[in-house]
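[09:14] KT: can someone run the structure on this one? pasting the chain below
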Amino acid sequence: MRILIVGGGGREHALAWTISASPLVDALFCAPGNAGIAREATCVPIAADDVEGLVRFARDQRIDFVVVGPEGPLCLGLVDRLEAEGIKAFGPTAAAARLEGSKGFMKDLCAANNIPTAAYGRFGKIDEALAFIRRHGAPIVVKADGLAAGKGVVIATTIDEAERAVRDMLQGNSFGAAGAEVVIEEFLDGEEASFFVLVDGETALPLATAQDHKRVGDGDTGPNTGGMGAYSPAPIVDQKMIDMVMARIVHPTVQAMKSAGTPYKGVLYAGLMIGKDGPKLLEYNARFGDPECQALMPRLMSDLLPALIAARDGVLGHFDLRWHDAATVCVVMAAKGYPGAYARGSEIKGLDAAGQVEGVTVFHAGTRTDGARILSDGGRVLGVTALAPDVATARERAYRAVDLIDWPEGFCRRDIGWRALTRH
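[09:31] RB: done, structure tokens below
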């Protein structure tokens, strides 16, 4: 098969690394890709949100199957356009991708189908939003309704902070069109976990579990980011919890989307908060998580490509996947200043030495080449991922590899996996 992966981040490098090993693949392309993906696939300079350009390339290159990585092109309808051209694609349609594209849509679906989630309100007017905050008090969570690259969430510890977030979004245009409406919801206490399923429109197949680290600093301090690291499996999500999440959250969602005439196909990522009342849904994402994908793929024993095709073709009911019992830890290395302003173009050395540490794979998230040099080209730049018999060993290997990377302009958290180690 001739395969095209859309995207150029760490998630797409992990997918390219995995899919390139499939015996079904004759040719693998990635648009736009990055310096690391170039080792696995032929990178083509087409932006991930250039829907017409991607469709034209897939048609001209006789692509058999397209795997869409990021949420942006999904919400723009890339899968709809590819399928209309007769090109098979993995990922939800634009209508189904609203589960991520609009937090308000997701919350309304939960309310209508008795899916456990935080109490909430939706607002487009500042006065109404401020009145809701003052009525409910702090801590409280303010979210931009639309796509904001993982940064449109403010966990406000005071009423002043919440009001400032509302004004920034609705009045200050801090997230553009994504913040034209806000969702304000109660603060949920507990432990977060990432739960992934493949969905074929009707059947949902659970994947391995993972846990992300959203805040930029050690000890879960500082602003939210797209993710500073992840590990798999998540000890809090045992088989009993998996059954509970499937019954209370995933199955009702899949059935609701089917009943609405917008069946969901692709990977569905449920961000969970697990507290004393059981699991509650924080958010849905319409794609593999980043950096969770980097933690999941090294644990996968089965060929991923047939599973993605089965999800698109509606035959997941006859499918299963096998996973290594081993654990993984992914440490994200980011450019100094992230998630705020940061510089691009600094040289990264020592990548080959890091990749020679036992069990380590260095996934590229924001890199480009300049001759033989590897340069930073994003906020989150590398995902240093280690596979080992347990989380403690995986973490030790990952940080040993991090310390071999010579990149003075980068930084990372030093406590990835702390919850799993504390629980152990």
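[09:33] KT: thanks! The chain has a mean pLDDT of 94.
[09:34] RB: yep, looked fine to me
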